[in-house]
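Encoded backbone
================
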Amino acid sequence: MKFVVITVLFLLVLLAFSFIVTQLLAFNARQKLPAEGRFTEVNGGKIHWTEQGEGETIILIHGLGGNHHNFNYMVSELSQKYHVVSIDRLGSAWSTREDFSYAPLDAQADAIVDFINKRNFERPLLVGHSLGGAFSLSIGIRHPDKIRGLALICPASMRIDNTPDIFRDLEIHSSGGRQFLAHFLSGPFGLLKQNRFLTEIFKPEQITPDFDINGGAILSRLPSQFQTTCEDLIAAKASQDDVVSNLAQLNVPTHVIFGEDDVILDAKRHGVAFSEATGARLVLIPKAGHMLPVTQPKLCNKFIDDVMLATNAN
């Protein structure tokens, strides 16, 4: 009996310590990268967004577990020519989400369309990275009149049967389990996993040294972000057929750039096969991986310039 009591007390102390670490890491993240943009109420929550530059509008849509800072390496140059809008998707970073029912691909895509309507942006070009590409495709299929076209960077464009190994720990199907882990354990969990996680998503390229702050990675320490990432992963897998099964209806100019050595999303499947299925223009970058907006910003900006010219011609 004494052993049981001691064990329970030890676990409670350990849990309390983990909770404190999680909250301190979240507090530090909020201090380092506070909300710097504006908020717009949309169906399902509030979208936090920033804007720079003038001209034709480009909307940047980040991927799983990301935020608008992921595009910081591109924005300075892009905003010299265009009106660049970077968003935090529903529930990510400083944006809010009402509940899990707004996590599926089409629901988040509809929230972005609602944002476009409320800000009166006239047919913007959507630039979607990774899972952001899936949301962009959903908009392109169901709301083609709202956008100029799609510029997709390493997009999740085809069906994903197997979750990439690095994300499997986030497949938590219990709502209570996600909330508990987010608020009590996500801090130590993130610290233990961060280096391996970043190494994987950047492969074969090196982790950009300032990615924690300039790339916004530190915001992954927010409990709300951990919960959103888990929900987005589960919802994307459950709702991906709503997009993939309707690719034949994609009728907006679509362009794709992919790192040939991407280890998160297979370039042959999500790049080459997608291009063959839809007629999308494809650019492959040798010896490059998944994080092109960070590691290859000039190539990404050149790609976007080309898309803007091509869609002008159309």
The mean pLDDT is 95.
